[in-house]
Amino acid sequence: MKSQDIVVLLKLISLQDQEMEKGGDRLRAESIGGDPYSVRNLEALLGISKSEIGLSINRSVSSGIARRDNDLNEPRPRRKNLFDFIVHGVKFVFPASSGSMQRGLPTAFAAPMLQDLLVSAGSYNYVWPYPEGREIGQAIDPLFKSVPEAVIKDEHLYEYLALVDAIRLGNQREVGFATKHLSLKLLHR
What we know:
The chain is mainly α. The protein is about 50% helix and about 10% strand. The protein has 2 domains: about 5-95, Arc Repressor Mutant, subunit A, CATH 1.10.10; about 100-185, no CATH class. A hairpin with a 6-residue loop joins β1 and β2 (about 75).
């Protein structure tokens, strides 16, 4: 697996969430070529090349974290398998370490949708480096370089990736909160 595989899988889940909220017809109308799950549409939304998205989907299907829908041949993440990998493996396979203070987009529990879940005393906020960001914090490399641009367009994806960073970076208490919240978002749909 590569780190962008997690980004692609979480984007697919975000699209499923949006499909439930908006309805499939509206989501298809907003997508390139009418197919929100096409590699062309995913390329436009994520800033990851079509070939890399295709390879990512193939790796995810081969590993059992995703499957191909039998009727539409669309990639479908296996939410439970992805959840288990994020909770138990992502911090070891794709470890995060904090860098220097930079301008960027808040991540982990500093992300706008998560900042009220947990209060940490005396720690800096974490950010994905992004020149147009309005926050200053300790820099964390995102799972893929285009993550800041991708999450600006998709608050579901932003929340999922911020939770992944909370798991990658957090202490035991923070990881527990992030795991519980991710479980509610990912598994109870």
